[in-house]
Design goal:
The chain is 83% helix and 0% strand. With 116 residues, it is mostly helical. The termini are far apart.
Length: 116
């Protein structure tokens, strides 16, 4: 009996999350997909390293840190572009995107330098 109540609660939770996410603007959904792609790429690289090995360890670290850093910067972009966020209401979306691109450029220059 407790299990069916927990299942009902889980279904209600997923239904409410899905209906709330349906109201999310498309630009935020695209950023969410980009974040999901970056995190999935990092997980694939870690799984590959666990299976095959990490002979060029610098390459492994660079790849994973690139994915994680890009995901973190994309989360920052999502926070700044979100219209419901009152902290960044005066910041135009173009400025937030320019910050995202510039920080990604610096991140990847550091990662390329770390490769050697």
């Amino acid at each position: 009996m407790g299990r069916s109540a927990a299942t009902k609660d889980a279904h209600a939770l997923f239904h409410s999350l899905r209906s709330a996410y349906a109201a999310t603007p498309n630009n935020l959904k695209i950023i969410d997909l980009y974040i999901l792609f970056a995190v999935a790429t990092a997980v694939i690289q870690v799984a590959y390293m666990a299976i095959v090995g990490s002979f060029p360890f610098n390459s492994f670290l660079s790849g994973v840190l690139s994915c994680v850093g890009t995901a973190v910067l994309a989360v920052s972009l999502r926070i700044q572009v979100n219209k419901d966020n009152k902290e960044f209401k005066d910041l135009p979306p173009e400025r937030a995107f320019a910050d995202f691109v510039l920080c990604n450029l610096v991140l990847h220059l550091v990662i390329i330098n770390f490769l050697g």
